[in-house]
Write a structure and sequence with these properties.
With 454 residues, the protein is of the alpha/beta class. The protein is built from 18 helices and 13 strands.
Length: 454
Amino acid sequence: MAVIAANCPKIRVCVVDLSQKQIDAWNSSDLPIYEPGLPEVVEGCRGKNLFFSTDIDAEIEKADIIFISVNTPTKTKGIGAGRAANIKNCELCARKIAEVSNSDKIIVEKSTVPVRTAEAVRRVLMCNDKGLKFQVLSNPEFLAEGTAVPDLMKPDRVLIGGVQNEDGLKAIATLVSVYANWVPTDQILTTNLWSSELSKLVANAFLAQRVSSINSISALCEATGANVSEITRAVGMDARIGKRFLNSSIGFGGSCFQKDILNLVYLCETYGLHECAEYWNQVISMNDYQKKRFSEKMVSSMFNTVTGKKIAILGFAFKKDTGDVRETPSMFVVRDLVLEQAKIHVYDPQVKREDMWVEMNYTCNMSESTHPGVEAAVTTSPDAYSACDGAHALAVLTEWDEFKDLDYARIYKSMAKPAFVFDGRNVLDHDALRKLGFEVHAIGKPDPNKFSDL
């Protein structure tokens, strides 16, 4: 919404939320999320044509276009639990809009939703007793956290789906005219509602599929002496395949990939497409395998025990340039090591300890109440050097740029020996680390202690 306001100075944009705490943060200099470039965009528009408010009813009444941008988490109970998306929040938004509105409006699904959610929203809106007409559009977002601002300023494409009749096409044209203020019209794609809704799920599924595909090869590389970086370079030069999303790692995380694939799996099962569901579920299975494989390699490399050993975890966010910890692979490695009774010291430049434990509790059911003493077993360090001081091993689990430039000679001197490095993102200079004396293990890279013919 901030990017729309920045590029459309004649359009009034107001973001509303039930949480006064969230709105207060958006109206302050300390925004509630970390995203490079976002503070500058917000500060440039706030109070001019960009506003943040908890007065939901008043802002609905004023609006011509309403974007529904609410969370659609995976269900934890009931039919489809663990796979289906819970669209309760979308329905609640539609009911509030129908209740408050006094004029016709365009309603835009911005949330990632199961295909045909727009039909549920439309039916709720149609039940208004004022004779109002609503057009429901789908306008999924394809941004990536960490690069969200440039992704929105110069998007690969903008996708808008709507009903293919006169009123629906008119609504589509209205939203197209908003984006046309800064996006070339040949990059604004228009489709029917269902193609637009499904496209977002498919896009995320394809990206996650590439990650799981190269991660499966990384395991084969470690077993055979091949180098996954050389494999990706050779494969990525094929124009049919391309170079993007071929970096092997401990696995994908974030709020979208797993949730959207599970949603896709559930949709396939619902329509009786069981072979399709099994295919996409394997992407999740491979991601789980990769995280577990990394944890197990850490333990086996350190003489099959990490009990009582200090281990430094560098990076807890699911990727660099964000503080988002939802479904972060780091969390699962930390969980596994805690269960092995290791002493964990975590450093991440943007993740708050409170957020870390909220996610650990929600996703892994790991908290002081379920695992007494767990919070004492996990220390959050103020910097990488203190995290590594006296550690038996360090594991790079988020690809923050600062981890490439650390003084590893200093770190090596401060660590217990033998000093282990586990590079879960392949961002370090492994040869240089070995010359310092580290024993280095990396995703998809051959171990020189295992192979003599590299």
